[in-house]
Design brief:
By secondary structure, the chain is of the alpha+beta class. It has five helices and eleven strands. The protein has an eleven-stranded antiparallel beta sheet.
């Protein structure tokens, strides 16, 4: 009986600790209906020595979607909404459009990307075991382990670091590849341009 009481106490303590961590990170993150900035992504592919490096800019509209525009090493655009994904390689290059209503996995991945970029810890905690710590006066680190079977087939773990905003994301894939995305020059303005709004309205 004592062991059972102790076990329940430990489980409640773990739940409270995770809840406190989520609340602490949410308190440090700034409420940003719109966020724009620059990114650098380094992808390490199993079997290759040098990482593939890409750079560009992004816009995250909490209500409308994400614009992810790569400039280096070549121009490409990615448009994510809650219901679709569209991509284009350069001016007049290859393009495709996917409808999330026909691709359940796409809807789940879009939701994950929204949550990662915006630091939506509450949403992430529904599909991951969340561990981490608060760092200094305004920093934080999170380690996410998938509890969702579909995501567990793709990711071994995801690590996030930030302060008022998400500053870096590290993705460890089950097949051995990994990606590190660093964010810079983050700002909550200016609002969406007409061109950006049209892309997100498609």
């Amino acid at each position: 009986m004592k062991r059972l009481v102790l076990l329940v106490g430990m489980l409640l303590g773990m739940t409270a600790g995770a809840s406190d961590l989520v609340a602490g990170v949410r308190a440090r993150l700034e409420d940003a209906p719109l966020l724009r900035g620059e990114f650098e992504q380094k992808k390490t592919v199993a079997g290759f020595k040098k990482p593939l490096v890409s750079r560009g800019g992004f816009v995250l509209s909490r209500e409308k979607g994400v614009l992810w525009d790569t400039r280096v090493p070549f121009a490409s655009t990615l448009t994510l909404t809650r219901t679709s994904l569209s991509a284009e390689q350069g001016a007049g290059g290859a393009a495709y459009h996917l409808d999330a209503s026909r691709e359940p996995a796409l809807a789940a991945m879009n939701a994950l990307l929204f949550a990662l970029l915006s630091g939506d810890v509450a949403t992430l905690s529904t599909r991951f075991r969340v561990e981490g710590e608060l760092v200094g006066a305004d920093g934080w680190k999170l380690a996410l382990t998938p509890t969702d079977a579909g995501l567990a087939r793709v990711f071994r773990s995801i690590r996030l670091e930030g302060d008022r905003f998400v500053r870096s994301v590290r993705l460890e894939e089950t097949r051995g590849d990994s990606s590190v995305i660093q964010f810079d020059k983050l700002a909550k303005a200016p609002p969406l341009s007409d061109t950006e709004a049209k892309r997100l309205a498609k």
